[in-house]
Structures are given as C-alpha cells and as structure tokens.
Amino acid sequence: MLGRGCCRLWGESNYTCQRCDSSNFCNCSSMNLVTIPRVLEKVSRLNLSYNFITHIKETDLTKHIKLKVLMLQSNEIQSIDDQAFKSNVVLEYLDLSNNSLIQLSPAWFLHLSKLQHLDLSGNKYRNLGPGRLFSHLESLRWLKVGNAFLSNLKKDDFEGISHLDDFILLGNKLESYEDRSFSSFQNVSHATMNLHDPFQKNQTLAQRIIWDLAPATTHVELRDLEYLSSSDTQLFSLPNNSSVKKYTFRNSSLSDSTIYVLLKNGRNSGISELVAENCAFSGRGEWHKVKNMTCESLISLTIRHISIKQFYLFFDLSFLHGLISHVRTARLTNLNLFMMPCGVSKSFQRLEYLDLRENLLTDLMMKEMVCENSWSSLTYLILRKNKLHSLKKISPILSNITHLMHLDLSQNTLSDVDFCVWSKTLQFLNLSGSQLSTISQCIPPNIEVLDLSNNNIRTFTTHLPSLRELNVSNNKLMYLPGGGYLPNVKILMISGNNLISMSSDEITTFDKLTTLDAGKNHYICSCEFLTYINKYLTHSIQLLNWPENYICDSPLVVKRMIVKNTKRSFFDCHTTLSVTLSCVALCLPIAIVGLLCYKYHGIWYIQMTWAWLQAKRKPKKVRNNNIFYDAFVSYSEMDSEWVENFLLRELENTHPPLILCLHKRDFIPGKWIIDNIIESIEKSRKTLFVLSQHFVQSEWCKYELDYSHFRLFDENNDTAILVLLEPIPKETIPQRFCKLRKLMNTKTYLEWPEDEVEQQIFWFNLKVALKGEENIRGHQ
DNA sequence: CCTGGATGGG
C-alpha cells in the first residue's frame, strides 16, 4: 500500500516510461502507473497492463499516431474520454479487459477503422451502452465482450459486425436478450458463449441466443454449463437454417441427461464435429434410449480430459452404434477409459484416426477391444500413455487391424519385447518412452518411420531397408546405428546419447542422410572430430540444433566448450610429430654435449678431475711410508721395446739396482687401470716419462703425466723426469696437453742420443736424476 | 492428424 501511495504521486507528476526496444515496442507493464505515462511518440506497440491507471484523458495518446497495439488490461480504468483514441487511427489491437468501466461509449471507436482485435471483457458494465458500440469497426475480426454483470443484450448492440474469426460473449449472468441481436452477423467462424445462468435458469433464453447465432456461425462453443436438467426438450436443437458444423463443450459439468438431450436433438442438425474438453461427467453412460438413432453427419468426435468419477461403472456403449458409424476421427483421450467393448469398436466402421492416449488400457483389454472387424478402416492409432506392457501380447492383436499404417505406443512400459508380429501395412511406429533396452526382435521389417527415443537402448543393429526416419534420441547409444543396415535413412535423430565421436566413415554409410540431430552427446573433441564436423559435416547435411547442443566432453581443456568454437593447438593435433620434435629437442643438446665431450676430450677431463680429487683426499704421510719403487715409468706401448731393452736393463742392473715400476709388469691385475696408475705413481719416488710421438697419442700416458704433475704442485717434490726419445716440436703437442708443454718449458729434459758415447752420458745423467734426491733426503 | 518427452558427473 505504501508503494502504491508513493507511485500515485509520481505518476501524477508526469511519469515517463522509457522501456522501449528497437521495434518501438514499449513495455510499461507492472510499473505501478496511475496515469498513461509519457512515452516515445513513435511507439508502435504499448503495453500498459497491470498498472493502476484509472482514467484515460483526451490528450494522453494524441501524439501516438503510429500506435498499432495498445494493451491496457488489468488496470483500474473507470472512464475514458470520448476522444481518447481519436488520433490512433492505425490502431489494430486494443485490450481493455479486466478494468472497471461502468459505461461503454461508441465514441471511443469512431476513428478506429483499422481495429482488428478488441477485448472489453471483465469490466463492470451491465449493458453494451445506449449507442451502437461497434458500428464503425469495419476491420474487426476478434471480439470479446461481457462480464459477470452483463445482464442484457439488445437488438442493435452488435450492429455493424458481420465477419469475425472469434466472438466471445461472457454472459453468465445474462437475464434478457432481445431477439435478432446477432442479426448483423454473417460469418463468425467461432462463437464462444459463456451462458451459465441462461442455460441453468432460463433455457428458452439460451435457446434463443443459440438459434440467433446459428445461421451465421460454423462453430459454437459453450462454456461454464453445469449439470443441465432436460426439462426443455428442445435444448441443443438447431434451426433449419443453421450453419453450425462444430459443437464444443468446455469447462462444463455434464450429466447423463445432458448427453442424452444433446445426442437426441443434435443428431439431425447436421453437426459434423463434436468436442467435449475439460469437463466433469457425473453419469455412467445411461443413454439407452438412443439405441436406434443414427447420425450420418458426425465425422469427428473429440472427448478430451474429462473427469469421469464413476468410469468403472460405465455401461457398454454398444447402443451408440448408429450415432458413431460414420465417425472418421475420434479422440478419446484422458478419460480413464479402460476398455472399449468389441461391439463399439466394430461400430466405428469408418474410423480412420483413433487417439486413445492417456487412458487405462491394458494388454488384456486390448484383446477385447480388437476383435474381428473392429476399426476396420483404421489407419492411425495412438495408444500413448496407457498401461500396456507386452509387445509380445499386443503386437499380434494390433496386427489384426488390417489397414493400420501409423501406430503410437509411446510412454507405456513395454518390457517384454522378444517376439513381435506386425501388420505388413505398418509404416510409422512410435515406441518412445517405453523403457526399452533391447528392441531388435520387435521392429516391423518394412517400417519407414521409427521413433525409439527416450529408452535405454545401447545397441542398434537391425536391418531395416525401408527406414526413412529414425529417432533414437535420449538412449544410451555409443555409436551411430550400424550404417550399412539402414540404407534409406534421410533423417536421423540421435541427440542425448553417449556418442563420443562421429567420423566420415560412419556418416558416409548413410548415403541418403539429409538431416541429423546429434547434439547433447559426450564428444571427445579430437582434432579429427573437430575438423570433420566443423569443416565437412556442417556443409554437407542439415545439422539440427547446431551449434548450441554440440558440446565437448573431453579432453579436459575443452570440456563444456561448444564444438563450433573449439580449436586445438598444433601440438595437440600432431601428436606423432610433436613427440618426435620433443625428442629431437631433448636429444639434440645431449648429442651436442656428447659430441663436444668427444671432440674436446671431456671424459678425459672428467676422469682427470676425479682422479685428482681422489689423490687429494689421500693423506700425504701414508704416501711417503709406502714408497716401494724408485721410479714409475710412463711410456707408450709403441716405445716398449726401448723401455724393456734399454732402460730396464741399464737401470735395474746398476748397483744398487733401481727398482722400476712398469705397468706391464707391476700393475695389479683386476684393479681398475686408473687406480693402478695412481697407486703406482704414489708408490714411486719419481715418475719417469718416456716422451715420444706415440706417448702423446696414448691417453694413459697423458694421465700419468698429469697425475705426476699434481704431485709436483701439491707436494713440491720434483718427481717428474722427462726423457725424450725423439725430438718433439712443441707445436705438435696438442693444445690440451698444456701441462706437458709447461713441464717441458719449466724442466730440463734428457734427450736420447743416437751416438753411443753420448748414450753413456745419458744413462749417467738419468741415474743421477733418479738417485740424487735419495741422497739429499737420506732415506732408506 | 498439431495437440510430446529427457536431459549425469567424474
């Protein structure tokens, strides 16, 4: 209440509504408005419904000359100025329903020659005014008038109206009706009358209204009738000049007597279509008196959503034979129908279309319903949402309907499907929503359109050469149905399954495929799949619900992405290539390092470093106490002849003999060669290097040289003695033997001469070099 | 011969 109070004030101070879109539709519904707001002048559709507008002023809508649709329903409009719609000459749609208008004025509509749709229902007027309300509405096609207060209709009320698609009169409280009030009506396609009180209290009045209407309308619909008594036996009869072909009862309560009167009086009125919808029926089908009546005009019967309290007490309706024998279309749905006796089935001898959905039919009752010659013309049968369980039982029964082409068994619980018999004429079969998990044994081989949606089918491999359309949506299929078995399928619906992929190979087996719905599956968005579906499939067939329903399920990086927008990276898409490239990227540095190692003798350097570290770790004293040899001779194998023939003989035969360590002779077998070298050098006082070109080539010699070099620097003892067997120019020594170069620079070396006299001097010098230090140290 | 439905997350 506070809100309303506040906004009434706001509204009076020129409230503006700016909720307009690009098509000049302004939606000002439910804004607590109390007056017509200021709004875009070029507005073409204006919704002002569900506000608190009480009055429409003459000036409110004068500027809105382009207004075509004006919705003012559910306000509190009590009055409208006579000239209020004067400028709205292009207005086509005006809804003034559910307001509080007490009086209607013909002046409002004087200029609305384009108005097609007018709703004046649900106000407080008791009559349609003194003037001729609708006489200028030459374009009117839809009219709803009346309310719970309308008490009388008089002769000129509808003057000017001749053709309407729909005419709805709310006259539940109508008390008086002046004859020929509908005399201007020439062709009203559908006239809906809510005439509760007239039918209840004054059936003559009701009768006069219907009789007046009957020559001008093809479809009469009666609403809100309630358990009519049949005191007036003329009820529902129609005049000879009636145009009525269709009679509808809606939202009414009917009894046995109502139906009996209707059947009795209606059968000769030329009605071809009878509809009862959303009604309550209190009787038990006690219409025996119609037994010998016939009705050749009735060809369509619709009885839908009827609450029948005593449905289980219903009579066998075989006495209806003559009334239903010409019916071609029957919809008997949502009626608690549990049975149609064989006799009634037989009476429907011209029935082509029968809809029995939402009833209580069982396998057993089907047997009773389909007897010899029942429904002998039937081609279309709907048994959706009943209590059928076994295809094994009902398929042979239904195969007796000799012309059946179209059968809908959807939404039953069909568990027993191991064996079926079908009519050869059957072309359309609907088994959706039936909890089926296997079906292959139960599909008619010549079927053309098959709906198996909403089941639990995991595999589909049936051979169906005539099949044109297949709907297997919402099942558990992981693969497309075996393509080769379905050569004529044009339309395939397989959304909501467990498909993980679709490949060109699978799709191309359906040569005739034009339309495919494969959304809502669990696609693995591989590169092949993405390429195929995005670049080829979408261009070759009509893909329904594309792209919004095609979502990637995996891999994780693209989960929940729309297939159309999903792109995979180069590395994802070329796995072999990228693995190869990674391997190359990983192996190349290793190879390069390896190559560099080889080229620059890395391993040798590593070994050296390791050996050096080893040597450094050993305590010095232990070394001195373990002197065992006078000299360790380091030489190349190529120089072994000189070492063994000359050096060994000369030095070991002196007095006292010098003890030499030769790797050939003194190395401990089985020990690692580097350990041997280190140990031997450590056990020797001096290291004698026999230098030659060969020596430089041999790695071990380099190593020995280096180790001795460590000792040289570590212990400051002059252990290395160099003997040159042949001249080695310094340039020929490889770069990495910088130590040898240094050694040769810093130490004097002995050269092996060719001349024998000079050789004697050489030996002498060598012995001095080997022994000299011994004298200084005074050891041993 | 339109009047229909189910749907998952790891």
From TrEMBL:
Keywords, comma-separated and alphabetical: Disulfide bond, Glycoprotein, Immunity, Inflammatory response, Innate immunity, Leucine-rich repeat, Membrane, NAD, Receptor, Repeat, Signal, Transmembrane, Transmembrane helix
UniProt xrefs under InterPro entries: Leu-rich_rpt (IPR001611), Leu-rich_rpt_typical-subtyp (IPR003591), LRR_dom_sf (IPR032675), TIR_dom (IPR000157), Toll-like_receptor (IPR017241), Toll_tir_struct_dom_sf (IPR035897)
Cysteine pairs bridged by disulfides in the record: 20-26, 342-371, 420-442
Spans through the membrane: 577-598
Any one Gene Ontology molecular-function term assigned to this protein's record: transmembrane signaling receptor activity
Gene3D superfamilies named among the record's database cross-references: Ribonuclease Inhibitor, Toll/interleukin-1 receptor homology (TIR) domain
Biological process, per Gene Ontology: inflammatory response; innate immune response; toll-like receptor signaling pathway
Gene Ontology cellular component terms for the protein in this record: plasma membrane; receptor complex
Domain of life per record: Eukaryota
SUPFAM superfamilies, sorted: L domain-like, Toll/Interleukin receptor TIR domain
Function summary: Cooperates with LY96 to mediate the innate immune response to bacterial lipoproteins and other microbial cell wall components. Cooperates with TLR1 or TLR6 to mediate the innate immune response to bacterial lipoproteins or lipopeptides. Acts via MYD88 and TRAF6, leading to NF-kappa-B activation, cytokine secretion and the inflammatory response.
Full protein name: Toll-like receptor 2
Species this chain originates from: Callorhinchus milii (Ghost shark)
Lineage: Eukaryota, Metazoa, Chordata, Craniata, Vertebrata
